[in-house]
Amino acid sequence: MKKVCSNGTFHRLSMSKKSKENNHTLFGSPRGSFRRPKTEKNSVTRGERGPIMIAEGSKGMNRSIKTGGATNRMSMRNERNKEMLLDIKSRAESWSKYACERMAERTEAAQESEEVRMNKEENQDELRARRTTRMRKVSRDREKNKEELEAEKVKRRQEWK
Predict the structure, then answer these.
(1) Backbone dihedral region for residue 22 (phi beyond 0: left; psi -120 to 50: alpha; all else: beta)
(2) Residues 69, 148: one domain?
(3) How many domains does the chain have?
(4) Same domain membership, residue 55 and residue 39
(5) Separation between Cα atoms, residue 147 and residue 119, nearest integer Å
(6) Beta bridge partners of 35
(7) Where is the segment annotated Disordered (predicted)?
(8) What is the pLDDT of residues 103-112, one digit of tens each?
């Protein structure tokens, strides 16, 4: 006995085994599958699967849509998928090339900056050494000047006396 559901379709669970096997228009649902009305299967409106792509000027395509067959539709979909895959591959390749270039640039920049830093440190060391020698020189000069000044003072005093 076939149990008719509220929407006028037959319930799968109450169907006989043979009718289940023959009925290939089943689609899944949580409470078992429901039988689609046959008209929907061959209708042109595709609904969930997206709009039908009608290629202008291709008779075969239009014919397949009119008859409800899916041969040309499938081949077009396959073509589109192939194109998409190729596009993705090319994008990935170009991105990887770009990434490699960027990495190379970064490593070069890092090496340069390292060299610059090393040079700076060396220069700092040199400057420090120069400064210390200069400071020593200045202090020596000061000491000499002090001694000279003292000597001059002594001379002047002796001259005055």
Answers:
(1) alpha
(2) yes
(3) 2
(4) no
(5) 42
(6) 26
(7) 1-78, 103-161
(8) 999 999 998 8
35 vs 151, residue with greater confidence: 151
Higher pLDDT pick, 13 / 107: 107
Q: What per-residue confidence (pLDDT) applies to 140?
A: 83
Q: Is the full-model pTM beyond 0.85?
A: no
Please state the rounded mean pLDDT for residues 113-120.
Answer: 88
What is the reported pLDDT for 71?
58
Please give, one letter per residue, the 3-state secondary structure of the chain. CCCECCCCCEECCCCCHHHHHHCCCEECCCCCCEECCHHHHHCCCCHHHCCCCCCCCCHHHHHHHHHCCCHHHHHHHHHHHHHHHHHHHHHHHHHHHHHHHHHHHHHHHHHHHHHHHHHHHHHHHHHHHHHHHHHHHHHHHHHHHHHHHHHHHHHHHHHHC
CA 132 centroid distance within chain: 54
The token pair at 68 is 């409800």
CB 52 within 8 A of CB 73: yes
The reply to whether 55 and 10 lie within a common domain is: no
Q: Which two tokens stand for residue 135?
A: 């400071």
What range defines the domain where residue 23 resides?
1-43
